[in-house]
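The instructor's notes for this session suggest beginning with a concrete chain rather than abstract definitions. Hand out the sequence below and ask the class to guess, before any prediction is shown, which regions might be ordered.
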Amino acid sequence: MANCYWIICFLVLCCLVGVYEASAGDSDPLYRSCLKQCEKTGCVGERCFSHCKFSSDDSSLDSPWYMQQPLYLWWKQWDCQSDCRYHCMFDREKERAELGQWPVKYNGKWPFQRLYGVQEPLSVAFSALNFAMHFHGLVCFCSLVYYKLPLKPDKRPFYDYVGLWIIYGLLSMNAWFCSAVFHSRNLTASILNYRDIDLTEKLDYSSAVALLGYSMILAIIRSFGLRHDAARVMVAAPLIAFTTTHILFLHNYEMDYGWNMKVSVAMGIVQLVTWSIWAGVTRHPCRWKLWIVVVGGSLAMLLEIFDFPPYQGLLDAHALWHASTIPLTYIWWSFIKDDADYITSNLLKKVK
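After discussion, reveal the predicted structure:
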């Protein structure tokens, strides 16, 4: 459930980026003039970029990235348009700082300093740490149910939700991996070319929505204690069909940010309400951990509401929010392990 908060925040943020026609920085005449000049000459001031190659008639000689250089070099470098935007943006921000003016957003994002070719290094680092926390939690969970807790005579765990949590862990790791890739470079569809939807954006959206839809299914199954396959299929089948159809709609028909936000927020709310009600009525000895995740996640979402420019071009509210999900993820997996221990103990008492 800890993933629900970051998914909702991310999708709302991306929706806002997709629907706004321009950021404050994009409408700055000096910035636009610099950008136009750079795209013609390949230079910003005295800085010229090797990616910007022009023929004698001023037509671009840029070829697909796989025709220009190896993948390991391409990943650390940027294309002509990205370099022009980046350097024009920071030149303009230096001028604004000298005049005592507050930073503004460009292409829907705050100005970030690149670090080894990475556009948002701290968000990438925190996404990687979240990936590591889910990996650690999944490994510890499997070790607990298969090697530490008693097993049935057929060597299967007494805990009936093992397979569901394993799938959840894999989907979570996939989502955080896609998040790290997405934040590693500024490859999202920009405001100036909002129809150019990038592959990393599609993967990030798909993995986030898939995890959110599955988490909703898991919340319903665990909260209602559904142990029979028939009951689980009745719950999961329509929700899986809807989630799959929604992802295919975004990929193959229209990348509708507004509709995607409504669907994702609705699934997230259903999940949060389900867990909250269950935590309020159950006598589970570790329900306090569930409340920590619910309350802590709600407080962490305030970082997305009260946004602020990145400190030293590196640390912004979104990066801090990514960091806040790390301890929540640890507590969440701790609850999952305690739940397996609790259910197994109760079943063993009934057997005896």
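Then share the key points. The chain has two domains: 2-19+117-351, 29-98. The mean pLDDT is 80.
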